Automatic annotation (TrEMBL):
Belongs to the LysR transcriptional regulatory family. It comes from the Bacteria. It comes from Comamonas piscis. One of its GO terms (molecular function) is transcription cis-regulatory region binding. Keywords: DNA-binding, Transcription, Transcription regulation. This is LysR family transcriptional regulator. Pfam families: HTH_1, LysR_substrate. Transmembrane segments: none annotated. InterPro entries: LysR_HTH_N, LysR_subst-bd, WH-like_DNA-bd_sf, WH_DNA-bd_sf.
Length: 290
């Protein structure tokens, strides 16, 4: 098997143009060079690719089958060349990233589309989970970095950088007694069960004597919709698909809820790649647009 990529390119060009002379013009080569290259390819493959008994070069049955293979090999060769050029230019070969499931889907989806366009040769590993899980992925070495809603102080073996913020609010079911559009007091909230986010080493403040906890904002949103209690949720979670119709935001001036901070985590001492720095900057911009 001594055929070359250049021979395949000339074979495909001849098949596409319909003649050796037209292929030669499109490739900027002499007709004899193209004809010789295709002939050598036929010898190497052991099959006749073109029927030369006609004025124009017509593919044989074997030629039609092998043309498909040649096109695919050329596509792979071009991809290999592009990837090699990107890597030689300093681009990252791969990126492993863990993303908090509570982050806005629209911002995450936009980020991934832009990564695909900006770094077409990049091999991406994407892990999703709760805030605790994505931090664990970084600690275990399964992910090089994580985007996470800030749930309190990080462990000593992490480094962090603030990326942006997301809004939060108090939500109840649409037919909950508090869902009348009026502002509520802390005393009114305390009369109903509170659903709290559970994170190790972080104790969310409870305003009600009755409390249920979960480690997933999506699970909490489902429980709110089932009238099991009220909760403070990221607005994007409350507005996600079916939640938009099932939940109602309740103004509570006494809480004065700040926007939730979003951060990037990575292992202490690890060198952040060029791509990771781009992700930090661009995701912050996407969050600011929400």
């Amino acid at each position: 098997m001594e055929w070359t990529v250049e021979q395949l390119r000339q074979f495909v060009a001849t098949a596409d143009s319909g003649s050796f002379s037209a292929a030669a013009r499109s490739l900027g080569k002499a007709q004899s060079a193209v004809s010789t290259a295709v002939g050598m390819l036929e010898v190497d493959l052991g099959v006749v690719l073109f029927d030369r008994s006609h004025r124009n070069a017509q593919l044989t049955d074997a030629g039609r089958v092998l043309l498909l293979e040649a096109r695919e090999l050329l596509r792979q060769a071009e991809q290999l060349d592009q990837r090699a050029q990107a890597l030689s230019g300093g681009a990252d070969a791969e990126l492993s990233m863990a993303i908090d499931e509570a982050l806005p889907y629209t911002a995450v989806a936009s980020l991934l589309r832009e990564i695909a366009q900006r770094y077409p040769a990049l091999e991406l590993l994407l892990l999703n989970g709760t805030a605790t899980e994505v931090a664990d992925y970084v600690a275990q070495g399964r992910a090089g970095m994580a985007l996470q809603i800030d749930r309190g102080p990080v462990q000593q073996h992490f480094e962090q950088r603030h990326v942006g913020t997301v809004p939060q609010g108090v939500f109840v079911a649409v037919d909950h007694p508090l869902a009348d559009g009026q502002a509520v007091s802390l005393q009114a909230l305390a009369q109903h069960r509170q659903l709290l986010m559970h994170t190790e080493d972080v104790h969310e403040r409870a305003y009600s004597p009755r409390v249920w906890r979960s480690d997933s904002f999506y699970n909490i949103a489902d429980m709110v919709a089932d009238k099991l209690g009220w909760a403070v949720l990221p607005v994007n979670i409350a507005h996600y698909e079916g939640n938009r119709q099932a939940l109602r935001e309740v103004p509570c001036p006494a809480l004065a809820l700040p926007r939730l901070s979003v951060r990037m985590l990575w292992r202490q001492g690890a060198q952040r790649s060029q791509t990771a720095q781009y992700v930090e900057t661009r995701f912050g911009q996407l969050l600011a647009a929400i």
